[in-house]
């Protein structure tokens, strides 16, 4: 059993570190070396000459490994290679061989749109099975930053709609993963303006800045090391946005607790945000309100448990109904039948009558 675990570990290591082309070159050089050694068998003092040459080569390899390689590595870390545009297939090829980490930071990305997403998700699944974490940061579609970016693109794209498409595709992929793999695939939404995009695999990354009037993927991409000054700077920006980001599951559904005279009940409901207010569209909650229409019902949200909300059904003739329907359709690709507005209500204090 112990030897079996070692064998599996060796196979995993070789699969992660050696690509088919590398293996082919290594096999060819090995065969050539064996052929040369076989051809030299007849020379005098064959064993002594072989030992002498192999010892000299070993000393040279040690010098290169411990002296020359670090110098070359440091020189490569500071090197910047410029790509004319963001090639998603090229990036997916690099992701396929990743061993430690994959990160994406963008407003929205064609990487998660058909047909490119199929190759990326296949590569992502293989990485997740090797326990390689994947982190994706997209702009919050309901943020002011998304509105500003749409204006900056001057009509080339509706940023909110594009982000919502990405979110639906990413969430569908997440839900299709086994729970054990899903925990290594994280997607969060940021509300601030990042001004930069990152496509990282291991210690390498493509960095670009958001231009006016064009998508970042259509502009130059700088390939740098994550340990270079530029890589360190944008990496810190990613970490900051990640810490304050909203998990994608909190954007897709709202965890809400309804409280009435008989107790409390938890729901996970679809919702939209309009003018910084939450509107829920869930027939179960509508039915709950109907069953307790003679009593007072309040609500608490999972992300802000200290805040109490009153629930108001939005009338069909309300001025906001058309906007609610449009936003719900864009978010979930299906219409909402009825909406409930959550109105913040201050929790009772000690001075309030009981």
State the major sheet: 8 strands, mixed
Question: Structural class, from secondary structure content?
Answer: alpha+beta
How do the SSEs run, as a string of H and E?
HHHEHEHEHHHEEEEHEHEEEEHEEHE
Strand content: 15-25%
Transmembrane segments: 52-72
Keywords: Membrane, Transmembrane, Transmembrane helix
Descriptive notes:
This protein is of the alpha+beta class. The chain has two domains: 81-249, Endonuclease Chain A (Endonuclease, Chain A, 2-Layer Sandwich), CATH 3.30.870; 253-345, Pnp Oxidase, Chain A, CATH 2.30.110.10. Helix content is 46%, strand content 21%. Strands 1-7-6-5-2-3-4-8 form an eight-stranded mixed sheet, with helices on both faces. A seven-stranded antiparallel sheet has the order 10-9-13-14-15-12-11. β11 and β12 (277-280) form a beta hairpin. The termini are far apart. The model is unreliable at 348-354 (pLDDT under 50). The chain crosses the membrane at residues 52-72.
Topology overview:
Blueprint: H1 2-17, H2 20-39, H3 46-77, E1 81-83, H4 88-96, E2 102-105, H5 116-129, E3 134-139, H6 144-152, H7 159-175, H8 179-182, E4 185-190, E5 196-201, E6 204-209, E7 221-225, H9 229-244, E8 246-247, H10 248-252, E9 254-260, E10 263-269, E11 271-274, E12 277-280, H11 283-291, E13 298-301, E14 308-313, H12 321-332, E15 340-345
Parallel strand pairs: 2-3, 3-4
Antiparallel strand pairs: 1-7, 2-5, 4-8, 5-6, 6-7, 9-10, 9-13, 11-12, 12-15, 13-14, 14-15
Helix pairs in contact: 4-5
């Amino acid at each position: 059993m112990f030897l079996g675990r070692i064998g599996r570990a060796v196979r995993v290591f070789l699969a992660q570190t050696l690509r088919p082309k590398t293996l082919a070159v290594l096999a060819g050089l090995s065969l050539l070396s064996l052929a040369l050694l076989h051809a030299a068998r007849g020379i005098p003092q064959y064993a002594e000459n072989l030992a002498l040459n192999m010892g000299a080569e070993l000393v040279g390899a040690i010098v290169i490994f411990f002296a020359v390689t670090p110098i070359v590595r440091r020189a490569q870390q500071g090197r910047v290679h410029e790509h004319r545009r963001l090639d998603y297939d090229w990036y997916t090829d690099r992701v396929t061989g990743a061993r430690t980490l994959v990160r994406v930071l963008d407003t929205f990305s064609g990487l998660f749109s058909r047909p490119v997403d199929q190759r990326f998700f296949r590569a992502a699944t293989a990485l997740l099975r090797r326990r390689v974490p994947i982190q994706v940061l997209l702009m919050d579609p309901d943020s002011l930053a998304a509105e500003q970016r749409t204006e900056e693109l001057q009509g080339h794209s509706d940023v909110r709609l594009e982000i919502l498409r990405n979110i639906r595709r990413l969430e569908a992929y997440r839900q299709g993963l086994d729970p054990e793999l899903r925990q290594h695939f994280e997607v969060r939404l940021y509300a601030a303006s990042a001004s930069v995009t990152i496509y990282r695999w291991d210690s390498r990354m493509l960095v670009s800045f958001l231009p006016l009037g064009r998508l970042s993927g259509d502009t130059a991409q700088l390939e740098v090391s994550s340990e270079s000054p530029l890589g360190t700077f944008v990496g810190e920006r990613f970490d900051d946005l990640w810490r304050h980001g909203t998990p994608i599951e909190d954007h897709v559904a709202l965890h809400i607790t309804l409280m009435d005279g008989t107790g409390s009940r938890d729901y996970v409901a679809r919702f939209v945000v309009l003018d910084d207010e939450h509107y829920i569209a869930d027939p179960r909650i509508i039915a709950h309100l109907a069953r307790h229409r003679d009593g007072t019902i309040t609500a608490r949200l999972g992300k802000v448990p200290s805040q109490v909300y009153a629930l108001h059904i939005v009338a069909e003739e309300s001025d906001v109904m058309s906007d609610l329907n449009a936003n719900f359709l864009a978010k979930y690709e299906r219409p909402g039948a009825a909406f409930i507005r959550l109105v913040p209500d201050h929790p009772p204090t000690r001075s309030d009558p009981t």
